[in-house]
Amino acid sequence: MADNPHNAALLSLLGQAREQARFFGELGAESIALDKAAPSPEAVTMPVKDDAPRRPSVPPAREEFMFSARAVQSPKPYVSKSTGPSKDLFKLAAPQPSVAQAREALEDIWRDIGDCTRCGLCEGRTQVVNTHGNRNARLMFIGEAPGADEDAQGKPFVGRAGQLLTKMIEAMGMKREDVIIGNVNRCRPPGNRQPTLEEAAICRPFLFREIAAIKPEVIVVMGNTALRNLLEVREGISRVRGQFRDFRGIKVMPTFHPAYLLRDPSKKRETWEDLKKVIEYLESTPAKSKS
Ligand code: URA
């Protein structure tokens, strides 16, 4: 049967459907009428059009929004220091204006980042891994930092955790191309350790600028690093997951990191509960114009 190319394609489709059904089962998603709950790609993606007019390269609001980035604008060679992490790193991220006024192109931000040497993570990385995906997305996912696969390919979430994230997005009724995905840090930490507070504080202003440029309507922060760098919370992800928070006028849903779900698949059900809230919000809210 598989000799016939049509049958082979059918078998492959069946295999994929079975795999998807198994994954939905693991998530506890079988109770969801996906065609009702999941937004269509059209519903979650702003029309793609030339956005140059709404993103002048020298945006008037940039200075105000970029307050936190100014200290790290020009790449300086990293010099190893033995000073411990500051306790006041969150202050570097103040103030917190709404993203509404920010008008900056992602390319401007990536140009500023350049071949970054602002922290010690530059020493072990292969390349900088910038935010990637649909820049008109209503939904953004944020993780911690690239791993080995991301470091090699230059894109966030392309390894095992990324494959799980793709399944989660598909379970939500979307495609990966409908959303945008980034990290707090964009260089791979040695041995995949957690970025230090200082490394995160140096890198996250660029993420904040990207958020302002993209203006997603919902951000899913995955795991403690993303949670604590976007929101000023002391509790861990297990305590705050599933409750919408605010980041500069954008709804934020904290949930578990896919790498954690790979270690503890029993947490997939709670994660799915969180993602359902995101689907429900996006479905019940008309897409905002980004102009
Ligand atoms: N884990 C992350 O937090 N980010 C990636 O890009 C990959 C794995």
Notes on the structure:
The chain has 291 residues and is α/β, with parallel strands linked by helices. It is 40% helix and 9% strand. It has one domain (5-30, 42-68, 89-284): 3-Layer(aba) Sandwich (Uracil-DNA Glycosylase, subunit E). The protein is built from 13 helices and 6 strands. A 6-stranded mixed β-sheet has the order 1-3-2-4-6-5. Strand 5 (245-247) and strand 6 form a beta hairpin. The termini are far apart. The structure holds uracil (URA). Uracil (URA) binds at residues 143-147, 150, 156-157, 159, 161-162, 183, 259. Residues 143-147, 150, 156-157, 159, 161-162, 183, 259 line the site of uracil.
List the helices and strands and how they pair.
Blueprint: H1 5-27, H2 34-37, H3 41-44, H4 62-65, H5 67-70, H6 106-113, E1 132-133, E2 139-143, H7 148-153, H8 160-171, E3 180-183, H9 197-214, E4 218-222, H10 224-230, H11 237-240, E5 245-247, E6 250-255, H12 258-263, H13 268-284
Helix pairs in contact: 6-9
The chain binds uracil (URA).
The site of uracil (URA) has 13 residues, from helix 8.
